[in-house]
Sequence to fold (344 residues):
Amino acid sequence: MKGAPRYRSGDAEIDQKLEEIADLAADADDADLIFEMLVSAVRLGRERYDRGSLKLINGALKELRYSLAVFSPYAGTRKVSIFGSARTKRDDAEYIAAERFGAAIAERDWMVITGAGPGIMAAGIEGAGPENSFGVGIVLPFETSAAEVIANDPKLINFRYFFTRKVTFVRESDGYVLLPGGFGTMDEGFELLTLLQTGKTYLSPVVLLDAPGGDYWPSWLEFVQKQLQTDGLISPNDLSLIRMTDDVDEAVEEICHFYRRYHSMRFVGRRLVLRLNSALSDADLARLSTDYADIMRGEIAAVEASPGEIEDHDVPDLPRIAFEFDRHGYGRLRQMINEINDAT
Fold:
């Protein structure tokens, strides 16, 4: 086991047995984490919580483990989540837009993730094709089955808990497209923007897609600007986290262009490291350091992969840049990524 875990059960004999199990069950590099999971289970038992609480934790862990097993074979493929109403009819303009988006993004070698239900969710899967789709469903009393197009697909997961389902959406998605919807769509949209605004998930492209000529998202944006931005409840830069359009081709381009040069990010100590598909020039780095001085200390520099990135096999061969980020201006950071992608 890598190192000596400090998180223990409080019983040396139990800990010794858990270490032996962890060493048998996991690779050497991960045995410490498996040990801590086992310790948590033991402590839950020893602390005598009520059975309902134990059922919730047990169910959540099983759901998350299963979702990892379903998505793991496709880890190398970019994925976009499509959110929207389950009540949208097949001949509605929004349904047609979702279907067209699914087909167009699949042609760019992306896969789609939807909630597996009817309406917008079914449209996205029908457009991309079930072979390019995942269904991340939720068991509800009034929606008892998945959309027919993915009902028997091994890439369908039916969750009991909304929170484990949301974790899966965010963990597995490289981009998001939201079409008109009800409370659920608003919940998903605002929670996603909160995670991005606060840095609790890595930046990804978010597109608000309307039917041609639709006013759903313009009306939403008017509310956000009037009630949130005007009163200083959000920053004007926070709106850089979204792109609003009623053009499917523009939505596809926004999702794909985000990864034109930018690849991914990771914090290493106090520095934010941006991994790139191709290197930036010294002139570009100098310009970015000046233009985005408000969200960093010092300057941006080209760096080598850190020991931690190498140990984790975290794309160590890609070029990368690093700087000390204020961990607050994520809207401005999104603007920087846009400039990185647009650089010649």
The longest helix spans residues 51-71. The mean pLDDT is 95.
